[in-house]
Amino acid sequence: MCLHHSDLAGVGDIPKYPFPVACCLMRDHETNRRLDIESISAVTLTTHDMARSVDFYTSLGFELLDGGVDAAFSSFTIGDGYLNLIARPSDNQWSGWGRLIFHVSDVDALYHKAVELGLLPEAPPRDAEWGERYFHLADPSGHQLSFARLLTPR
Q1: Distances (CA, A) of 137 to 33, 49, 57, 102, 119
Q2: Do the beta carbons of residue 80 and residue 119 sit within 8 Å?
Q3: Which of 40, 71, 59 is nearest to 114 (CA)?
Q4: Quick one: pLDDT band at residue 99, thresholds 50, 70, 90?
């Protein structure tokens, strides 16, 4: 058991959480062996407008696997994984969730396609000091997306 769920939790600087935290979930407590996260299988984003969101993703070249403009849940294939959309009523609000990063074969071509579609990327693609070429774009529900490609060594 980790310190967050031990008898010491709530004493001094050790917080007590009523739910498992990452340090608890990432260990087999019988063997104390670290459990590795191998990949992301799927990401599910919420939307107030399924039709607009499905049109947005399909226009960028995402392949619709299931659902569609009139569905409550839609799924797109991305390599071995999935991007899912789930419709929520307009009174269900969210904010500040982060950014989803997609590796793509040609950052500049996708950027130009997005601009041609009338979408508004944050800025043109650029080479980052961490070794990727990327640009950012928000989807119709305000989710931040980054489209990137690893730079090859020179």
Answers
A1: 39, 17, 12, 11, 8
A2: no
A3: 59
A4: confident
Residue appearing with tokens 């009174």: 91
b/e per residue 26-41 (b: at least 16 CB within 10 A): eeeeeeeeeeeeeeee
Please give the DSSP secondary-structure letter assigned to residue 129. Answer: T
Q: Which residue has the tokens 């931040």?
A: 144
Two tokens, residue 113: 């396609």
AA identity, residue 45: L
Model confidence, pTM? 0.66
Cβ neighbours of residue 111 closer than 8 Å, sequence gap 6 or more? 121, 124, 125, 135, 147
Which domains, from first to last, does the chain contain?
1-38 (no CATH), 42-150 (3.10.180.10)
Position 153 scores a pLDDT of 58
Mapping DSSP to helix (H, G, I), strand (E, B) and coil, where does residue 66 land?
Answer: strand
SS3 at position 65 = strand
